[in-house]
Amino acid sequence: MTIFDSILFGIVEGLTEFLPISSTAHLIITSKFLNIPSNDFIKFFEIFIQTGAILSVIVLYFKYILKNKGLIIKIIISFIFTSLIALPLYKIIKNIFFESMSLIIFNMIFLGIIIIILEILIKKNKIFINKDLQSLTIKDAILIGIAQALSVMPGVSRAGAVILIMFILKYKREEAVLYSFLLSVPTIIAAGLFDLYKMGFDKIFLSAQNLNIVIFGFLSSFISALIVIKLFIMYLQRNDLKIFGYYRIILGIILYFIFFLI
After folding, report:
1. Tens digit of each residue's pLDDT (9 = 90 or more) over 169-225
2. Rounded CA gap, 110 and 31, in Å?
């Protein structure tokens, strides 16, 4: 991996982590197109650049959390229920799910269709999204945590799973997206630490070149995520999420042609 590759990976991570389009799927696709083989350093790198994206959430919403401390309990509850479901599936996730391009393509298209359907139902007033995070209940926090656990399958999207279940639970778009941002902090940090534990901390060796790669990837992830979060919130003030549904479907079809028909 070169420094250019690391910057590209960081940008991909930052651009996709908080949008309902699956950052994991995009990183896997990027690896395949760049022909970057998986090894202990690459696995560590992909984990570490996620912390750059997470840092952007902390920077932007630290004061918000301090003013809404009651929300922390709900975030912890959601995280716990995600963990209870995701942890037992760890080996299956890493050894089977992440190796299946057909699963990624199916999830990309299927969730894209679900996004579009929900947005149509909202537009037709079949679903009223009028709740804010102040009305978030423990029951809703549990359901959100369970839904987030589905995102262990590449192509689903952690942010997408959270946002869609919150639509169903009648939360406003901006509130659903904000909660997905905040819930990402403990979820991704814990998942990263668990991956490192399973991989073995003793296997991580950073030469001078590798250290530069990690630093550039981290910074590009942080900066791109910072920009995306701000733009995403602004976008949602006047628009729905259908464009992301169409994007998922189109990308899924393109990937199907590339990997299975060409």
Report:
1. 999 999 999 999 999 999 999 988 887 777 666 656 566 777 889 899 999 999 999
2. 23
Q: Tell me the C-alpha distance between 162 and 179, whole Å.
A: 8
Cβ of 201: how many Cβ atoms within 10 Å?
9
Q: What are residue 38's phi and psi, to 5 degrees?
A: -80, 130
Domain coordinates in residue numbering, the chain:
3-261
- The Cα 92–Cα 118 span in angstroms is 30
Angle at Cα 148 formed by Cα 19 and Cα 189, nearest 5°? 80
What is the value of pTM for the model shown?
0.91
**Could you give the CA distance from residue 197 to residue 163 in angstroms, rounded to a whole number?**
29
Rounded Cα distance between 103 and 126, Å, is 31
The structure tokens 């042609």 sit at: 257
Measured distance CA(77)–CA(79) in Å, rounded: 5
